[in-house]
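Standup notes
- DV: blocked on the single-chain target, sequence here:
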Amino acid sequence: MDKTALTLVIIGALNWGLIGLFNFDLVATLFGGQTSWLSRIVYSLVGIAGLYAISLLFTKDKVTDR
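- DV (later): unblocked, structure below
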């Protein structure tokens, strides 16, 4: 779950970077505009992943024995 959330947060960050630097919304371009239902689902998933990622700030690092 953590890696899925992190992947979605990275997608969101890259999309916002493209919007800020080039005024280009990759999600909207790929999924039919900002108001299409598919784009709205992607935006919602990215937002939920961002909320979930907040919890990762407060978890202790896991140490694995190899």
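- Follow-up: The chain is about 70% helix and 0% strand.
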